[in-house]
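Technical annex B. To support the medicinal chemistry partners, we prepared a structural model of the target in complex with BES, based solely on the information shown next.
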Amino acid sequence: MDVRFSGFGPAKDGLLIVGATEGGKLLPQAEAADKASGGAISAAAKRNRFTGAKGQVVDIAGLAGGRVALVGLGKADAIDALGGEVVGGSVITRFLVSGETKLVFALDVSAEVAGHVALAAVLRAYRFDKYRTKLKTEQKPSVTAIEVQTADVAGLKKLWKAHEATIDGVTFTRDLVTEPANIIYPQTFADRCVALKKLGVTVEVLGEKELTKLGMGALLGVGQGSRKETKLVVMQWKGGAAKEAPIALVGKGVTFDTGGISLKPGDGMWDMKWDMGGAGAVAGAMMTLATRKAKANVVGVLGLVENMPDGDAQRPGDIVTSMSGQTIEVWNTDAEGRLVLADALWYTQDRFKPKYMVNLATLTGAIMISLGTDIAGLFSNDDTLSAALTEAGKGVGEELWRLPLSETLDRALDSACADMKNITGNRFGGSIVGAMFLQRFVNGTKWAHLDIAGVAWSGKARHIHPEGATGFGVRLLDRFVKSVAEG
Ligand code: BES
Ligand code: MN
Ligand code: ZN
């Protein structure tokens, strides 16, 4: 999408978008357009029951002066960045394939809000059409350019730099998450991360030989039944002071989760191509941070593995030794994400001694039972970290809800034959159990676990994303790093 900025004034070309607040009150740019059209806009507003509610759109085609759309901005005294995103998302949803090629936003809002209008429009316009060979012209996006009018062109241009970094990161994540598992598997995922080197990110890719040497029996056990080689990707962005402890981001990257020998049912198994959503979000966040040259030290560690059931696959009851030295009885090979993270978390804190360690994982189906598909679960051993993550999420519209840790559920993981099992054997508190398992591999570090199984993929389009990969986590992590490490 080509995005440009200019001062307020008549648009030379394109579809003009003007705004009104709740109650239908036209803002100055809308007033001017209404006057120029002989009252056509206010008349159309009335005929379409336009109330000015946030995101409501009235399309007025066939005017002598061209096509105009009126969009509702909601309550006049409450127009904020996230409200701007609802507006931008609603408008692009309406016009993306309309035949119009350029949208000109002339909303009388602050430069900050205008920036979020454009950000949302670009994020909502995301498409993944590379495998469609039969799209008809009228199904293809027509909008290729957005012009945003503002009273502060220079200020908005500066803000846009950061938004561009966000768009790059979110797009990178969505592409990774959407690609099927025959295209994105540990090696090809790692290859895409290696491309971040050109942004100044240090990228190391460890293969099975190195992982064996490190003693990562938990991670390696998951990949044992796959033809694809298990990988650990270690990315470092060094934008902060040389001696400052980094923020560590750790991602579950199961490129396909069949369940292994504890095989999943066939129905819906296709969803398990996005079981690498946590790793995808971490990779996207690293891209965003590097693109905007964040003044922070951040490491991203991804456990990349395919969970398949072949003749070499691990069996229920197998005992593996993790890098921490703790042994795990694998009762259920489908509870594999925690095995991946056990070694990735241990490795990360051992090597980097991070200030905070945050992992993201599509860990449990149970989190959708608790929180639905809009809100991600947060588990943490630190209140300050918890608050910072929750706050960051609120700021970008990626909501988190903190759930408790539980000693009782932790004890339920004790095993008769090893240091622990990877499941309890019943369904109680499934998401908390996952968190308790992970915590056994956290050694005093301030840590948080985000269970994003409900939010990484959406069965429905929202104002900020189409149906499919959401990119959840990228913006949250970017905001989090900004708040805790960039003053
Ligand atoms: N990847 C799944 C969790 C998941 C389910 C993610 C649905 C996204 C959508 C995870 O590896 C898994 O299989 N978890 C099991 C854990 C159980 C065996 C304790 C689950 O949730 O059923
Ligand atoms: Mn699983
Ligand atoms: Zn999984």
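Notes passed to the chemistry partners:
The mean pLDDT is 98.
Residues 257, 271, 275, 332, 334-337, 362, 364-366, 423, 430, 453 surround BES (ligand 1) (CB under 6 Å).
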